[in-house]
Amino acid sequence: MASSTSDRINDLISRNDVFLFMKGVPAAPQCGFSAAVVQILTKVGVPFESIDVLSDPFIREGIKEFSSWPTIPQLYVKGEFIGGCDIVREMFQAGELTALLADKGIVAAAS
Amino acid sequence: MQAGNEECPVMAMAGSDIERLIKEAFPGAQVIVVDLAGDGDHFAARVTSESFKGKSRVQQHKMVYDALQGQMGGALHALALETIIPK
């Protein structure tokens, strides 16, 4: 991974409390796994930013190397990799996602 | 860009291959693999193993991805994964 890609990734996840690397955009996800994470974040009511990796091949490959995680979507909270679709779903169902966001001082808009 | 990204799988994987690779890496684990769509491309796996003890969810899933020897995100496009520590 070029250092510029790594810098861009670091910038994205440090500038945004909740950041999602996904396929497509939140209003039109291009993959069921990305759609599921968007749906969960929407239910939790937390504001988030995202990037469409399909529009950026460098980020698309770079993020997998960055996190040593082979798939997309990838969710980051306060710069920390939280997981992909399965983990985010498990955490949401167990109430852990809301707890994590509260712990990090991120306020959900609705509950 | 790296070869073998998820957009150009060399070949689909059989569910039995997924099960074998995981069982080899986690001796004594209980492994259930389901072919969700019947297309050899979308699987769900539930792995129950003592070796997940003390690991975070991300670490547990990475252990299973490692067992799949780089196929995850490559030949294996979609694997919904659940890792469980036996009680």
Molecular structure report:
Chain A is of the alpha+beta class. Chain A has a single domain, classed as Glutaredoxin (3-Layer(aba) Sandwich). In chain A, 49% of the residues lie in helices and 19% in strands. Chain A has five helices and six strands. Chain B has two helices and three strands. Chain B has one domain: GMP Synthetase, Chain A, domain 3 (2-Layer Sandwich). With 87 residues, chain B is of the alpha+beta class. In chain B, helix 2 (57-67) links the parallel strand 2 and strand 3 (78-84). Chain B has a three-stranded mixed sheet. Chain B has helices at residues 15-25, 57-67, and strands at 30-35, 42-48, 78-84. The interface between A and B is medium-sized, with 18 and 17 residues.
Give a brief rundown of this model:
Chain A is α+β, with helices and mostly antiparallel strands and 111 residues long. Chain A is built from five helices and six strands, in the order H-E-E-E-H-E-H-E-E-H-H. Classes of the chains: A alpha+beta (111), B alpha+beta (87).
So what's the oligomer here? heterodimer
Radius of gyration of chain A: 13 Å
Span between termini of chain A = 39 Å
Query: What is CATH's topology name of chain A?
Result: Glutaredoxin
Q: How many helices of chain A does DSSP assign? A: 5
Overall geometry of chain A: globular
Termini separation of chain B comes to 43 Å
Structure characteristics:
heterodimer, A: 111 residues, alpha+beta, Glutaredoxin, four-stranded mixed sheet, two-stranded antiparallel sheet, 19% strand, globular, B: 87 residues, GMP Synthetase, Chain A, domain 3, three-stranded mixed sheet, 2 helices, 3 strands, 25% helix, disordered N terminus
Write the layout of secondary structure elements.
The complex is a heterodimer of chains A (111) and B (87).
Chain A: H1 3-15, E1 18-22, E2 24-25, E3 28-29, H2 32-44, E4 49-52, H3 57-67, E5 74-77, E6 80-83, H4 85-93, H5 96-103
Parallel strand pairs in A: 1-4
Antiparallel strand pairs in A: 1-5, 2-3, 5-6
Chain B: H1 15-25, E1 30-35, E2 42-48, H2 57-67, E3 78-84
Parallel strand pairs in B: 2-3
Antiparallel strand pairs in B: 1-2
